[in-house]
Design a protein that fits this description.
The chain is an alpha/beta fold. The chain contains nine helices and eight strands.
C-alpha cells in the first residue's frame, strides 16, 4: 500500500525526531508536522494514538489532523509510546507525558504557543490523553488548554453496563477490552493498585482540568465510562462538550465515514477543534 502524503502536496514539513523519555527510560520518537507557510507560533495538537494499548504508531492518526496543519492552523506532534504487553504501565503514559513536556519546553524550536496546547487521542489514545492531562495538572507542567477525548478507554474495572454488553460481537467487545487492559496492567487490572493516570476513571478529583471535548458511540463498550467521566468533570467545574452518537459503534466514523451519523460526528468535532485553535 502506498504511504499517504503527509506533506499534503508540500504544505506540511514532516520530521521524525528522537527526544528524551522519562528518567531512566529510553528515548521516544515524535512525529512533528509543521506548516510550510505562515509565521507562527501555532497552537499544538499533541496526539496519543489509539490501538488498545497494544498496537499503533505515532503516525497512525496523522490523517485525522493533517488538514489543520496544511491550512496553517496548528503544529501536530504524534508520540510513539511504548506498547503493552512488552512495556506495561506506567511505560505508555510516562512516554506520552515525556513527549508533551519536551514539546512545551521546546516551544521555540517547534514554533508553538505553549499556552495553546491541545492534547487529543482516540480510544486507548483517548485514555492516554486524559491520563496525560491529569499528569500535567498534578505535576504542574505544562499548561494544557484543551483535551479532546474520542471514544476514550478510561476504566479497567468493567463495572458499567456498556463494558459488559458486547460479547463476541461489535468492534472492541468486552473480550478485546479485557485483553487490552490485562496487557497494560497484568494482575493489577481491576484491583486497588491501578494508577489514575493509567485508568483516569479512577481519579477522584477532576477539578482544574482544561475544557474537554468527549464523544462516544451509543452502542460501544466505552459509552458509560466516557459519559460518567464527562459528567464528573462537569460536576468538578470543568467545561465539557459531550456528544453521544446514538447507534454508533466503536470507530464508526472511521469505518463508515460516508454514513450520516459519521458525517455529523466529524463535523461537530471539527468545529470544536477549529474553535480551540482560534481561541
Amino acid at each position: 500500500m502506498e504511504k499517504p502524503d503527509f506533506t499534503a502536496g508540500g504544505k506540511v514539513r514532516v520530521e521524525q525526531i528522537q527526544v528524551p523519555g522519562a528518567e531512566g527510560a529510553p528515548d521516544i520518537t515524535l512525529y512533528v508536522l509543521t506548516p510550510t507557510t505562515g509565521d507562527g507560533p501555532w497552537p499544538l495538537l499533541y496526539n496519543t494514538h489509539g490501538g488498545g494499548m497494544i498496537i499503533g504508531t505515532g503516525e497512525t492518526e496523522i490523517p485525522f489532523y493533517l488538514d489543520y496543519v496544511a491550512e496553517g492552523l496548528a503544529v501536530f506532534v504524534g508520540v510513539e509510546y511504548r506498547l503493552a504487553p512488552e512495556h506495561p504501565d506506567p511505560a505508555p503514559i510516562e512516554d506520552c507525558y515525556a513527549g508533551l513536556v519536551w514539546s512545551a519546553q521546546n516551544a521555540d524550536r517547534l514554533n508553538i504557543d505553549p499556552e495553546r496546547i491541545i492534547v487529543c487521542g482516540t480510544s486507548a489514545g483517548g485514555g492516554l490523553a486524559a491520563g496525560t492531562t491529569l499528569l500535567a495538572r498534578d505535576r504542574g507542567f505544562p499548561a494544557v488548554a484543551r483535551q479532546i477525548l474520542v471514544c476514550p478507554m478510561l476504566d479497567d474495572r468493567f463495572e458499567t453496563p456498556s463494558s459488559q454488553m458486547l460479547d463476541g460481537e461489535g468492534a472492541w467487545d468486552r473480550n478485546d477490552n479485557m485483553f487490552g487492559w490485562t496487557s497494560l496492567l497484568g494482575d493489577r487490572r481491576g484491583g486497588p493498585e491501578v494508577s489514575i493516570y493509567a485508568a483516569p476513571a479512577r481519579a477522584e478529583d477532576l477539578s482544574g482540568l482544561p475544557h474537554a471535548y468527549v464523544d462516544v458511540g451509543g452502542a460501544e463498550t466505552f459509552r458509560d465510562e466516557a459519559i460518567i467521566y464527562a459528567q464528573r468533570m462537569m460536576q468538578a467545574g470543568v467545561s465539557v462538550d459531550l456528544h453521544v452518537w446514538a447507534g454508533g459503534f466503536h470507530g464508526f466514523d472511521l469505518m463508515v465515514p460516508q454514513a450520516a451519523i459519521s458525517q455529523a460526528s466529524m463535523y461537530v468535532r471539527d468545529e470544536f477543534i477549529r474553535r480551540a485553535l482560534a481561541a
